[in-house]
Amino acid sequence: MDNTGNLVGSLGDLCRWLAGQAEAAGVEVYPGFAAAELLYDEAGAVRGVATPARGRQADGTPGPRFDPGVELCARQTVLAEGAHGSLSQEALERFGLARGAEPQTYALGLKELWEVRPERHEPGAITHTLGWPLDAFTYGGGFLYHQERRQVAVGLVVGLDYEDPYLSPYEAFQQLKTHPAVRPLLEGGRRLAYGARILPEGGWQSVPRLSFPGGVLAGDTAGLVNVPKIKGIHTAMKSGMLAAEAVHAALGAGAAEAGDLGRRLEASWIAPELRRVRNIRPAFRWGLPLGLAYAAAEAYLLRGRAPWTLGHRPDHQALRPAAQRRPIDYPAHDGRITFDRLDSVFLSGTRHEEGQPSHLRLRDPQVPARVNAPRYAGPEVRYCPAGVYSYDTDPGTGEPRLRIDAINCLHCKACEIKDPAQNIRWTVPEGSGDGPGYPNM
């Protein structure tokens, strides 16, 4: 976890710079267009992707300005969608890529960008926290990164394998900012931006097969994050290089699948780095004290040589019934250091075209009232960091009814992962560039 000599900066700025470098090398970049659908050939291999159709009405029927999606075909398609990408999930299921691997597990990261007073700013300074305000059986911690231009990124990462249905990651993040080690840094400052996104935390045992007929997986899509080190950019970039080499070799050989990508990953420095820390994250399911003790044993004694590998369970299975927990009384927002969710969503720059079908869909509209509300006290209201979900009363039946304000969605994917009934399906919005607009997060 030594960060001496590392660089602190904006990943958004880095990606924009990289896009310019790619275009200068002859790569065509299409910002604002999502990949909404995988395309298959007669043999069942992936032959490319399609952008979403546009101009549908709220009920899903084509409107007067309907425009079908555009097909982008390729001999090899690299899926690098980030954690829990919708097309990647389809490929994992269709080709059985996760067969034999442990279930992927995730965390929800919430982040704000602040402009602080000059005397409080220490460019390059990093602070990591563990635990508070989370309970001893919820994995997570906070971070403070001092960037350039008096900007400080502050955030909280919460493992989505938490048990308490009353836990609100957003409210816990606001509470973190009231800690005596954090509040003085932010007082007198100005909040500039807000965002949220999931992170893959399964580690080496959750890495799936990386190739399939017509394409490969790379980056966070493959779950290549070193959780104890709290780093994944380096592994994502390296996996992209390995994917390029494997695809190039497959194209040269006329092969339908870049089948040696897994071997290339095994032979790289990614494999020993992730294998060495594979047991640290799952050990924290025993609680913070035992997790820390085991992490120390792994870091200083075992060094990844343990003859066992700890497993995972899907995050949605961890939630306990509300009857086994008590509601959490979070502090009220003061409007200076802590803020409500809708104020934060405004700072995220989130936008969605009006009138389009909701990209958040329920497989069974009756499940929230039948399962989530009575058994888990409506956890959607709390695990969503954007206030997308709320409950009102159905005037016809008098029962709880789930309301979905998809226009607020930050595209974090936490709902699809944490929903205890696995009833929520996240799909790509049809609007061009819909979603959060992070300028320098």
From TrEMBL:
| Keywords for this protein | Electron transport, FAD, Flavoprotein, Iron, Iron-sulfur, Metal-binding, Oxidoreductase, Transport, Ubiquinone
Q: Where is the ETF-QO/FixC ubiquinone-binding domain?
A: 106-199
Essential cofactor(s): FAD; [4Fe-4S] cluster
Has keyword Ion transport? no
EC identifiers of the protein: 1.5.5.1
Where do the coiled-coil regions begin and end? none
- Note the InterPro entries from the entry: ETF-QO (IPR040156), ETF-QO/FixC_UQ-bd (IPR049398), ETF-QO/FixX_C (IPR007859), FAD/NAD-bd_sf (IPR036188)
Q: Provide the catalytic activity annotation.
A: a ubiquinone + reduced [electron-transfer flavoprotein] = a ubiquinol + oxidized [electron-transfer flavoprotein] + H(+)
The annotation note on the cofactor reads: Binds 1 [4Fe-4S] cluster.
Residues forming the ETF-QO/FixX C-terminal domain are 335-438
Chain's role: Accepts electrons from ETF and reduces ubiquinone.
Report what the protein is called.
Electron transfer flavoprotein-ubiquinone oxidoreductase
